[in-house]
Amino acid sequence: MDLGIAGKWALVCAASKGLGKGCASALVREGVNVVITARGADALEATAAELRALGREHGGAEVRAVAGDITTAEGRRAALAACPQVDILINNAGGPPPGDFREWGREAWIKALDANMLTPIELIRATVDAMAARGYGRVVNITSGAIKAPIDILGLSNGARSGLTGFVAGLARSSIAARGVTINGLLPGAFDTDRLRATMQGAATKTGQALEAVMAKRSAAIPARRFGSAEEFGAVCAFLCSVHAGYLTGQNVLLDGGAYPGTF
Ligand code: NAD
What is the distance between the alpha carbons of residues 206 and 61, in angstroms, rounded to a whole number? Predict the structure, then answer.
């Protein structure tokens, strides 16, 4: 299927690794020019080189890399400045740490809200009206399956991402909906990325088990009996950004191998 987005420009935040990289790769395969960001310049440049090689195989998409923290105003300014126009915005950033809410003061909450609620909102604010003026725009917020099925120790994530989801539910249905702009959430369940492995390693160390044993037990609890891959996450993201998904807005698409137990 031709997704109809070759030649568009996408800003893909936090994309040197994991799910962000999966989204950037899928877009580059479709001929979309991308600006990717991450904090560490080395990993980011390595990913940019990979994506440029991919671009040469798929219609010559341009790839620009901007090192910086997307949760800061300066990081966002640099990322936006590198993108001639933002037709597609993929919001992503690292997730907040787990813990007990009794230990989280105002500072911990502000940090989580900055990263996982206010940063995406700032980037939407900076881009959505120009998208609407051009009659086409796609915003995909990478959030978490935890907004549907909250995990107690991830309270900072549950709270901040639910705030973003609630805000976006209203914005997606505002006047921009009639002007070609869609905004959706893409909710990962368990995906095999560095972050997942780091979390599993923490559990393995705590319980004295091998990492592989903890991962096997975790994946056995998923109806698909496996973790998701960044490639399949990226493929769904690219479809949400396609011309074919113009009537799909204000939704939260869960990708979790069947882990969520509800009918809806
Ligand atoms: P990852 O650790 O594999 O990759 C994260 C990427 O984001 C890296 O490229 C890193 O450099 C970049 N990054 C992190 N913070 C940044 C910042 N402030 N500014 C710029 N770049 C930044 O993580 P992942 O597994 O791809 O997760 C992506 C998001 O999805 C996270 O918010 C995570 O909490 C969420 N999530 C992941 C899973 C999963 O199973 N992997 C499940 C639910 C939610």
Answer: 45
